[in-house]
Specification:
4 strands, four-stranded antiparallel beta sheet, 0% helix, 67 residues
């Protein structure tokens, strides 16, 4: 019998902010593959254990949608 373990992360999310959200439908469902571009940046606030994580996600499914 396995012993159940409860792990707690030291990380927590203070807030989430969206600067911009866009979605544009171009057509109906297609067999085209979804193309994704992901960019990220992590910066630490000076003199504190506080970090800002920036995520940019760009998606394109040709003939169907872009976001």
């Amino acid at each position: 019998m396995e012993k159940e373990q409860n792990a707690q992360s030291v990380l927590h999310l203070d807030k989430i902010v969206f600067d911009k959200i866009e979605f544009k439908r171009l057509g109906i469902a297609s067999d085209n593959e979804l193309e994704l571009e992901i960019k990220s940046n992590i910066a630490q606030r000076q003199d504190a254990e506080v970090y800002r994580v920036t995520l940019i996600l760009i998606g394109n499914k040709p003939g169907e949608y872009v976001f």
